[in-house]
TrEMBL record:
One of its GO terms (molecular function) is secondary active p-aminobenzoyl-glutamate transmembrane transporter activity. This is p-aminobenzoyl-glutamate transporter. The lineage of its organism: Bacteria, Bacillati, Bacillota, Bacilli, Bacillales. The chain crosses the membrane at residues 28-53, 83-102, 123-146, 212-230, 263-280, 300-319, 340-359, 379-399, 406-425, 437-455, 467-494. It comes from Planococcus donghaensis. Keywords: Membrane, Transmembrane, Transmembrane helix. One of its GO terms (biological process) is p-aminobenzoyl-glutamate transmembrane transport. Pfam families: ABG_transport (PF03806).
């Protein structure tokens, strides 16, 4: 028999979003259809004789039709290069070699358990949110680890387990984009942003650290905000939990504690060596003037992070006997790369779409005309950036994959905002806070069903409406606070990353 909460989950606007969102094709085919659309649009616009003046070079550029001899030769000659030369592909796969190794040997799970289980009772909520946010180092695995563990911890101290589950899901989902460390998300999105920025400036690079200052500050702020939401809004609404609590969790073992200790020692040694390399007089990783911004150190941050994760993962894995011989290391790395197969397939289609868009000159044509329109209506200040962020939040209700959505939006909006003198990394930031905030309320999030299953272990009548009603305050308040933070950084000129601010 259907419960009232389940009926509630099947009605209203959320059901409309779920119904129509589920009718969308797989993201792979979305990019295939968009590539076909670009082919046809390039032919139409070209046949009308449209041209555009490149804002950087002053050159008059005609729209090139892909439905032409030149266009067909381009497709045949560049399909493989479009794929293998697509910046996000290499960045993400390299990062996953290290992060995936750390996840496979169990370092991520142990760190998450240790963070929550050892927290003082008064700080449990903050620890849960903080761990959830930092858990994106383990990528999607955090969605499965943090919420149920948080529910059990809350129940063990006499608090409502659904409040713990909500806090864990909020930190993991709504806080997904933030981290004190540089993660795979930074590498993935910056690679797509770089590809889009090349429409205006072929030499422009968005690095994985360009949002680092903002995202590091976000970890602390969102942990506090999330804890306040949980304790002031969610727990009072849930009331006292009276159900059975017969679930238990495995504490961190002595061997795992030793492994974590050795991983921390390895991390300290590695960071110390990197610091010596950076600050050594005449260091080769500094720029010609001896500075850090820009420098080979920042442009080479990805391999530095890769070796960091390999170092700590090996230290942990050897200690807990997950790594017993050298061949175990590449074997775990190979398993991690297997999990990226869906992403690799998606990138093949996305790379073709973006390449067609840029080769035809439609990207620069659309960017210039859009920028001129916004200038003509005097909408070039911060409100246009906030409006863009709201648009991204709404689109995330229909396209859950952040990489797919950014690959779709970046080629249009980054060139347009660059012509309005906005830094691509700031545009990327506006997207990230929107995409992350709404992760926990879109029915297209595949982990919503998993979290709902965890939820029903404590409330058999819980339905989609129950879960969404719990998560909506987190989503709206996280987004609101992040927008305020973005405005403060913009107005005060605070850098969002090394040498990166609102304007170029």
């Amino acid at each position: 028999m259907t419960s009232p909460t389940e009926e509630q989950g099947k009605k209203g606007f959320l059901n409309f979003i779920e119904k129509w969102g589920n009718r969308l094709p797989d993201p792979f085919f979305i990019f295939v259809y968009l590539a076909v659309f670009v082919v046809l649009l390039s032919w139409l616009v070209s046949s009308l004789g449209a041209t555009v003046i490149h804002p950087g070079t002053g050159e008059e550029m005609a729209i090139r039709s892909i439905v032409s001899g030149e266009g067909i030769r381009f497709i045949l000659a560049e399909t493989i290069n479009n794929f293998t030369g697509f910046a996000p592909l290499g960045l993400v796969l390299v990062m996953m070699l290290g992060i995936g190794l750390a996840e496979r040997v169990g370092l991520m799970e142990t760190a998450i358990k240790k963070s929550i289980l050892n927290a003082p009772k008064s700080l449990i909520t903050y620890a849960v949110i903080f761990t959830g946010i930092m858990g994106n180092l383990a990528s999607d695995a955090a969605f499965i680890l943090v919420p149920p563990l948080a529910a059990m911890v809350f129940a063990s101290v006499g608090r409502h387990p659904l409040a713990g589950l909500a806090a864990g899901f909020a930190g993991t989902g709504a806080g997904f984009t933030a981290n004190i460390l540089i993660t795979g998300t930074d590498a993935l999105l910056s690679g797509i942003s770089t590809e889009a920025a090349k429409t205006i400036d072929e030499t422009f690079i968005v690095t994985p650290v360009d949002n680092w200052y903002f995202m590091s500050a976000s970890v602390i702020i969102m942990a506090i905000v999330g804890a306040i939401i949980t304790e002031k809004l969610i727990e009072p609404r849930l009331g006292k939990y009276t159900g059975r609590m017969d679930k238990s969790f495995e504490p961190v073992t002595k061997q795992e504690n030793k492994g974590l200790r050795n991983a921390l020692i390895a991390a300290a040694v590695y960071i110390g060596l990197i610091a010596l390399l950076v600050f050594f007089p005449g260091s080769p990783v500094r720029n010609e003037d001896g500075g850090i911004i820009p420098s080979p150190f920042l442009s080479g941050i990805v391999p530095i992070i890769l070796f960091f994760f390999i170092t700590v993962a090996v230290a942990y894995g050897v200690t807990v006997k997950k790594i017993t011989e050298s061949k175990d290391i590449p074997a775990y790395m190979a398993e991690a790369i297997k999990d990226m197969s869906g992403y690799i397939v998606l990138i093949f289609a996305a790379a073709q779409f973006i390449s067609y868009f840029n080769w035809s000159n439609l990207g620069i044509w659309l960017a210039v005309n859009s920028a001129e329109f916004l200038t003509s209506i005097n909408m070039t200040g911060l409100p246009v950036m906030v409006a863009f962020s709201i648009l991204a939040a709404l689109l995330n209700l229909l396209i859950f994959s952040g990489s797919a959505q950014w690959a779709l939006m970046a080629p249009i909006f980054i060139p347009m905002f660059m012509l309005l003198d906005y830094h691509p990394a700031f545009v990327q930031l506006a997207f990230r806070i929107a995409d992350s905030s709404t992760n926990i309320i879109t029915p297209l999030n595949p982990y919503i069903l998993i979290v709902l299953a965890f939820m029903r272990e404590y409330d058999k009548k819980a339905g989609l409406g129950t879960l969404i009603s719990l998560m909506l305050p987190y989503s709206l308040i996280f987004f609101g606070v992040w927008v305020i933070m973005m405005i403060i950084f913009a107005l005060t000129g605070l850098p969002i990353g090394p040498g990166i601010s609102l304007r170029m």
